[in-house]
Write a structure and sequence with these properties.
The complex is a heterodimer of chains A (306) and B (272).
Chain A lengths: L1 E10 L10 E11 L4 E5 L6 H8 L7 E6 L2 E2 L10 E4 L11 H12 L4 H9 L4 H4 L8 H13 L5 E5 L7 H16 L3 E6 L2 H7 L2 E6 L2 E7 H5 L4 E4 L3 H10 L4 E4 L2 E4 L3 H11 L5 E4 L3 H12 L9
Parallel strand pairs in A: 3-8, 3-9, 6-7, 7-8
Antiparallel strand pairs in A: 1-2, 1-4, 4-5, 9-10, 11-13, 11-14, 12-13
Helix pairs in contact in A: 2-3, 2-5, 9-10
Chain B lengths: L3 E2 L22 H13 L2 H24 L7 H29 L3 H7 L3 H38 L9 H25 L2 H25 L1 H10 L1 H10 L4 H28 L4
Helix pairs in contact in B: 1-5, 2-3, 2-5, 3-5, 3-6, 3-7, 5-6, 6-7, 6-9, 6-10, 7-8, 9-10
Classes of the chains: A alpha/beta (306), B mainly alpha (272).
């Protein structure tokens, strides 16, 4: 379990090359629970990576706390056995081989030698690939290597920053199954992404962050529910009037309408008005997507800590 | 935008949370072992290590070829090999620290071992170990050069480097490495630290010498504050109590104080 409480990180205005008095993480509070995959969603520069760096002690917090099962990460004696971390798959010495990078982790954590091959096998890196230097790796291969390094200590908590970046669709599916399995065995997974879809397919719980603040959080089902109804019809105008007459406000989206009413009510209104429908469904994720687009639309910012 | 927080009602947890289990701590010996490995597991690191042996042999060869026959003695080989050593060893020390930042491996290293001081201490120990072992390699190469060189020149083989003199040379080389290490910790950038090392070891001595020549007050002060000057006496094997004291005071200025600042920065700084 990861417990983040009132976490804040500000950068002083005197910082070299940094924007004056910038708050990268602003009073962030959330919990990632065992047995579940928690998605940390936000546009680039929203404060996801800074929050994660604070969790693992790479960046000091200005105030607030981040605890792993009630313990600060920096107080863990051998954190690799408890928390698997992947912050940036490219942050590796380009001149080391994949196998060497895992061997360093294996030796540091005091694990049996066989773990290196087990992990290479788990992330489907062939012995030939493992013997190549990381400078020749694609981003997808680096992500696989990074996930192998995160899992090598058999931790019960995973903290992964944008792990799906650079993976092909098959790779994303593989990772989804891997993380799902990890959570089902009682593990805690926190992963970040700037892509709503990625989070939607993997996460059980979603925490949305924008400009350093939490803007929404809850289970995926809860966040996606209450997202209203999407209805498509050739007679959008007629249906719009009928809905208005029934006291339901709606807005036009391309080729259809979106309303806050339930699909059931919209269907009845359409039936009453005699309007043929080509599509009628709950607007899954539409509310979340709107919120997310709103967040990303005003990210004209430079020099923000990613 | 208002925060729409949905309070989770029921959580369909599929498994019991995994319990904390006993975890073996990370011993210092293991960290030193890993840091030694990291010094030489890249192509650059490997050739850096090889160059210690290669340059020792080249320097010995050059001494045999170019030195006048009468000058061939152990002292000659000691100083011939000492020059490349005094450049490579500090580079090894610098890169062992700055690589964590320039190559961004610190993200992984400091996540596996959150107490950064332990990693830095392990790097310091590794650097000293590499320095001392390298000096013994150099000793063997130099001794062979002395035997071969004197045989070629047809002169008696002269062993005029005593154990205490050798110890002084090893100490001087290790101090040079420590300066490199300090610059690495202080600057945390490979390029900056390497440039700084050359400024420190090549430019600074001449500047201080000029200053001492121009200003008599500094001429008296120099031995106490010029670390290069103070440590160069280690090579002569003429250390006196006063010289040791001067080595101590000058090292406070050029080594201990900046190292303390650098360590404080390493502990606090953000690792990105």
């Amino acid at each position: 379990m990861i417990t983040v409480e009132s976490l804040t990180r500000t950068y002083p205005s005197t910082g070299s090359g940094r924007r004056g008095g910038f708050t990268a993480v602003d009073d962030v509070t959330f919990t990632a629970r065992p047995g579940r995959v928690t998605g940390f969603l936000g546009p680039n520069g929203a404060g996801k990576s800074t929050t994660m760096r604070i969790m693992v002690g790479l960046t000091p917090a200005t105030s607030g706390s981040a605890l792993i099962d009630g313990v600060r990460f920096v107080d863990l004696t051998n954190p690799g056995h408890e928390v698997g971390v992947l912050l940036d798959a490219s942050a590796q010495h380009a001149g080391r081989t994949g196998r060497e990078i895992l061997t360093i982790a294996q030796r540091t954590m005091g694990l049996p030698k066989g773990r290196v091959d087990e992990m290479l096998d788990l992330v489907s890196l062939t012995p030939l690939e493992a013997g190549r230097r990381v400078r020749n790796y694609s981003l997808g291969m680096r992500q696989r290597l990074g996930i192998a390094a995160a899992l090598i200590g058999d931790p019960r908590v995973l903290i992964l920053d944008e792990p799906a970046n650079g993976l092909d669709p098959a790779g994303i599916r593989w990772m989804r199954d891997l993380l799902r399995d990890f959570a089902q065995r009682g593990g805690t997974v926190l992963l970040s992404s700037h892509l709503l879809h990625e989070i939607e397919v993997i996460a059980d719980d979603i925490v949305v962050i924008g400009h350093g603040r939490i803007v929404a959080q809850g289970t995926k089902a809860e966040l996606l529910a209450g997202a209203g109804t999407l209805v498509r019809t050739p007679d959008a105008e007629v249906l719009g009037q009928a809905l208005a007459a029934a006291g339901v406000s709606c807005s036009a989206v391309d080729g259809g309408l979106r309303t806050d009413a339930t699909p059931d009510l919209v269907g009845r209104v359409a039936l009453g008005a005699g309007v043929p429908l080509t599509e009628l469904r709950s607007g899954d994720g539409a509310g979340l997507e709107d919120m997310f687009l709103e967040l990303t639309s005003d990210t004209q910012r430079e020099g923000a800590a990613a | 935008m208002t925060a729409t927080t949905v309070q989770p009602t029921t959580l369909p947890t599929t498994a019991a949370p995994r319990e904390r289990r006993a975890v073996p701590p990370i011993g210092m010996g293991r960290i030193v072992g890993v840091e030694l490995r990291k010094m030489f597991d890249t192509r650059a690191g490997f050739w850096m290590l090889m160059s210690i042996a290669i340059l020792s042999v080249l320097a010995t060869g050059a001494a045999i070829l170019f030195a006048p026959d009468a000058d061939i003695d152990f002292q000659l080989f000691a100083s011939a090999i000492g020059i490349p050593m005094s450049i490579i060893l500090p580079m090894i020390a610098i890169l062992s620290v700055t690589g964590e930042y320039t190559q961004r491996t610190g993200l992984t290293t400091y996540t596996m071992i959150p107490r950064r001081g332990r990693t830095i201490a392990a790097k310091a120990i590794s650097a000293v170990l590499v320095g001392v072992v390298s000096m013994f390699v150099a000793l063997v190469v130099g001794a062979l050069g002395n035997v071969v060189g004197s045989a070629i020149a047809g002169v008696d083989t002269t062993w005029n480097v005593s154990v205490s003199e050798f110890a002084g040379i090893v100490l001087a080389q290790v101090l040079g490495m420590t300066v490199g290490f300090m610059l690495g910790v202080l600057l945390r950038s490979s390029a900056a630290a390497i440039v700084a090392y050359f400024v420190y070891s090549l430019v600074l001595p001449s500047l201080l010498m000029l200053l001492a020549g121009a200003q008599s007050w500094f001429a008296d002060l120099q031995p106490w504050v010029d670390f290069n000057y103070a440590s160069s006496r280690l090579y002569d094997g003429t250390m006196t109590g006063e010289y040791w004291a001067q080595l101590g005071t000058s090292s406070v200025v050029w080594l201990v104080a900046p190292l303390a600042v650098g360590l404080a920065l390493v502990m606090r700084s953000e690792v990105k």
